[in-house]
Design a protein that fits this description.
With about 375 residues, this protein is of the alpha/beta class. It has 19 helices and 10 strands. Strands 6-5-4-7-8-10-9 form a 7-stranded mixed β-sheet, with helices on both faces. Strands 1-3-2 form a 3-stranded antiparallel β-sheet. α14 crosses α15. The protein is globular, with a radius of gyration of 24 Å. The N and C termini lie far apart (about 50 Å). The structure holds ligand LPSJV3QT and S-adenosylmethionine. The site of the ligand CC(C)=CCC/C(C)=C/CC/C(C)=C/C=C/C(C)=C/C=C/C=C(C)/C=C/C=C(C)/C=C/C=C(C)/C=C/CC(C)(C)O has 10 residues, from α8 and α9. This is Methyltransferase. It comes from Niveispirillum lacus.
């Protein structure tokens, strides 16, 4: 005999039948308090339905330099038309769309200032860079069902993240790492702020950032902790970029940069704290196990290991981020957005101890899982 479903599930099925009924929805629209709830649900669904279009509004705004033009200063439709080269009648429609999406405010007729979201977008180069690189992702997502079936594998993102294509050989060539390394450098500010606010690095003497890219996270940490010695490990094609970038910031005398493969090459062993920022999410479980096993082999007992990346979780931000990355990693052809428990299990399986989760102020950007070698 089939067991009857639990109460919560029966309630959900009843609720779904109600919402599916046009008569119920008509009733909701007639009752003022219910109407507000109904409209909120309708608006949520419309945000999903129009998501691509809203995102393209933002892409056009970034490409036209619209938000940058409004930093600290209002501007008229006419002056924005001459700045962007868009005729003012068309631009006005576009500016109103931006206002409806919370990017701009029409402070007086034909006078525009940034709204809250526009301010954040205009003040963070990394966000604009992410918006621009979505053009590539959206081409990969043109047939999302085919991507899910595994029928599309030759994606642009797979080319872009060159280390995903060649995991066994000598690694990508320098020209192949330029695009993603720059995007990672530019988008590190928000990430670094989030990590450095959530964890106190003041007791750390030597910080090693594994897969540290151009060194943007180390530079942010060095800025906050002037006595910190810096170590960076990344692919041989990336290491010279890191050297150049850290030298340009005057940090060379505090820094050693090492090139190699973090799944198999020895890592510097003089660090008392090691970070993996946006690293594990790029890889499937077997490769994460290889990375962590190599870290466990190389690091001294007592070293703190910090995993920092977007993780799935209970907060709305964590859930949004996990939904975003679910398709992102599918298009990239490797990796997944894990929750903190899954990361903790992988760390424990590799032999790391005292594994704990540390929430950050902005869960859509990162959660930390910290362990001890
Ligand atoms: C009284 C006053 C002055 C104001 C009152 C109003 C008020 C309280 C306003 C709030 C202001 C405020 C604090 C706003 C904060 C806004 C924040 C923190 C916004 C953050 C937004 C972050 C976004 C949209 C992040 C997007 C991130 C993306 C798309 C990341 C993509 C990452 C990728 C593709 C990474 C790739 C690497 C890989 C492959 C995963 O390894
Ligand atoms: C998504 S990026 C993150 C960069 C940086 N941690 C950040 O958050 O901006 C991943 C980094 O891992 C590096 N990487 C990928 N495979 C690697 C390998 N086998 N050995 C060493 N580094 C590797 C890449 O070159 C890249 O810099």
């Amino acid at each position: 005999m089939r067991a009857s479903p639990p109460l919560a599930l029966r309630l959900r099925l009843w609720r779904n039948r109600m919402i599916a009924s046009p008569a119920f929805r008509r009733l909701v629209a007639r009752v003022p308090l219910l109407r507000a709830i109904g409209n909120r649900k309708a608006n949520d669904l419309f945000r999903l339905t129009g998501g691509f279009i809203f995102s393209q509004v933002m892409l056009a705004g970034v490409r036209l330099g619209l938000y940058a033009a409004l930093v600290d200063t209002p501007a008229t439709t006419e002056s924005l038309a001459s700045h962007t080269g868009i005729p003012d009648t068309r631009l006005r429609i576009f500016l109103r769309a931006n206002a409806a999406l919370g990017l701009l405010v029409e402070a007086a007729p034909d006078l525009w200032v940034l709204d809250d979201a526009g301010v954040v977008l205009a003040s963070d180069r990394g966000l604009s860079a992410m918006v621009m690189h979505h053009a590539m992702l959206y081409r990969d997502l043109a047939e999302p069902d085919q991507l899910l079936r595994g029928a599309v594998t030759a994606t642009e993102l797979r080319e872009y993240w060159a280390y995903v294509r060649d995991m066994s050989g000598t690694g990508p060539k320098p020209a192949e790492v330029d695009g993603y390394s720059l995007l990672m450098r530019e988008s590190q500010a928000m990430m670094a702020d989030c990590i450095l606010a959530a964890h106190d690095f003041s007791g750390v003497r030597v910080l090693l950032d594994v897969g540290g890219g151009d060194g943007a996270f180390l530079a942010a940490a060095a800025n906050r902790y002037p006595d910190l010695a810096l170590r960076l490990f990344d692919l041989p094609a990336v290491a010279p970029r890191a050297n150049r970038h850290l030298e340009s910031l005057g940090l060379s005398d505090r820094t050693w940069v090492h090139g190699g493969d973090f799944t198999r090459d020895p890592l510097p062993d003089d660090a008392d704290c090691v970070t993996l920022v946006r690293i594990l999410c790029d890889h499937d479980d077997s490769r994460v196990a290889a990375i962590l096993a190599n870290l466990h082999r190389s690091l001294r007992s007592g070293t703190t290991l910090i995993v920092a990346e977007a993780m799935d979780g209970k907060t709305e931000g964590a859930r949004l981020s996990a939904a975003y990355f679910s398709l992102y990693f599918l298009a990239m052809g490797s990796g997944r957005c894990r929750n903190a428990q899954e990361i903790a299990s992988l760390l424990s399986a590799a032999g790391f101890k005292k594994v704990r989760t540390v929430a950050t102020a902005t869960p859509l950007i990162a959660t930390l899982v910290i362990a001890t070698r």
